[in-house]
Amino acid sequence: xAGLAVSTTINGDSVEYLCQPDETLxxxxxxxxxxxxxxxxxxxxxxxACSIILDGxxxxxxxxxxxxxEGRRVETIEGMADGDVLHPLQQKFIEHAALQCGIxxxxxxxxxxxxxxxxxxxTEEEIRFGLAGNLCRCTGYDKIVxxxxxxxxxxxxx
Amino acid sequence: xxxxxxxxxxxxxxxxTNSAGTVAVLAGGSDLLVRMKGGFVEPxxxxxxxxxxxxxxxxxxxxxxxxxxxxPCAVLGEHAALRKAWPGVVEAANLIxxxxxxxxxxxxxxxxxxxxxxxxxPALVAAGAKALVAGPKGNRTVPVEAxxxxxxxxxxxxGEIVREILLEKRPPRAGDAYLRFIPRTEMDIAVVSxxxxxxxxxxxxxxxxxxxxxxxxxxxxxxxxxxGILVGSRLDDATLEKLAKACSDACRPIDDKRGTIAFRRxxxxxxxxxxxxxxxxxxxxx
Lengths: 158, 286
Ligand SMILES: Cc1cc2nc3c(=O)[nH]c(=O)nc-3n(C[C@H](O)[C@H](O)[C@H](O)COP(=O)(O)OP(=O)(O)OC[C@H]3O[C@@H](n4cnc5c(N)ncnc54)[C@H](O)[C@@H]3O)c2cc1C
Prior knowledge:
The complex is a heterodimer.
Chain A: E1 4-10, E2 13-19, H1 25-32, E3 51-54, E4 57-60, E5 73-75, H2 88-95, H3 105-118, H4 124-130, H5 142-157
Parallel strand pairs in A: 1-5
Antiparallel strand pairs in A: 1-2, 3-4, 3-5
Chain B: E1 2-4, H1 9-17, E2 23-26, H2 32-37, E3 45-48, E4 58-60, E5 64-68, H3 73-78, H4 80-85, H5 87-93, H6 99-102, H7 107-112, H8 120-126, E6 130-135, E7 138-143, E8 148-150, E9 153-154, E10 161-168, E11 174-181, E12 192-200, E13 206-214, E14 221-222, H9 224-230, H10 237-250, H11 261-282
Parallel strand pairs in B: 1-3, 2-3
Antiparallel strand pairs in B: 4-5, 5-10, 6-7, 6-10, 8-9, 11-12, 12-13, 13-14
Helix pairs in contact in B: 5-8, 9-10, 10-11
The structure holds flavin-adenine dinucleotide.
Flavin-adenine dinucleotide sits between chains B (24-32, 34, 49, 69, 95-97, 101, 104-106, 108-110, 112-113, 118-119, 156, 161-162, 187) and A (44-46).
């Protein structure tokens, strides 16, 4: 089967692909486009490891069909750094050791980016609540929260 | 499986009625795609309603608010006028899932998925919300509680699609609230929930009330008796006590690992009382 032809924008670039009607956007990103930053944790929207931003909204790409991206704007972790310059969130995750195995990290970074875009000065509670859709089994979350707070203050000063 | 994204409601209805196999309407997909992955549904055709004209808008009209069936719940929370008029409905819609789920899920999908524990439904029932249903025979408007008929089942005929959820214009001194009990602080399914909607007179006495309970029966329970208890009162302790009892008595809950029958009954009364107090305060009652 040839599949559905989809034209979309990913991290600012026009992209075209063919996908099956029941294929998720996560599978398209990973298996067809080689964008393997978004991870499949649960596949049911609970863990947030596949988080992307679709038309300005944070979503789980495991619960979006590849066909639904037609004509829309997709932002993934691959578009977060500016060339070799890391995004402040990425930098702070490294400095605070806010990751261990790293599987959840792309999802946390995307979710944190969306959070700070909407609320540049979140309280700790707002950060924990805002990132409740992302699960991490290594860090215990504290270091992630500190990294986001630190990145937020750097970004506010910039 | 085929995937289609019609641009008009007429086309969407035609696609469904002309299809011989199983058809699934796709809104935010936060139930449908999970069920498909689990192998619980295998549609032959998916009709994505998000590109249908007008379905992604919240409109404020002379009659009240009309919420298109494709509007994600996150957008409800960002709509200041809706939040002000119907804080209980919006808080219920915003309790669904995480930020990620909020970016996709809809209240029409929450309603049509027909889960007994759906969060926005008790709040919508308490609010007296209506569903505008489009179908092969034209449009019909029904109270939202007429849509779910049991767990996973609805009264929608083949080709019928909820187009809009309608909320009335508020009189002065009105307020609503929704509370749920879950074992965690977020990202969990309601064990019991309660939505209360009140209107007060100038002296703070309740003139009309609707109380709805979630997750304590196969569908949301509208506790008619509770309205009778609340109307005329100013929510004194004795009234709240009677309200709690009426709500506990109205439950027909299941017994499972998430909550026993006795627990669900008791908590239904507690939540109804607290939601009533919150709605009363929002309506300006003291
Ligand atoms: C991680 C996670 C957490 C969740 N947490 C909660 C929670 O806390 N509380 C809660 O209540 N739910 C929760 N849910 C369930 C789900 O998100 C909600 O029920 C949501 O409101 C469904 O809306 P949707 O637009 O995504 O529906 P979809 O999945 O698109 O559709 C759901 C069903 O309704 C039908 N349908 C959708 N729209 C229409 C329409 N306009 N007309 C006719 N039929 C239609 C579909 O065919 C399908 O059968 C959660 C789901 C996930 C994945």
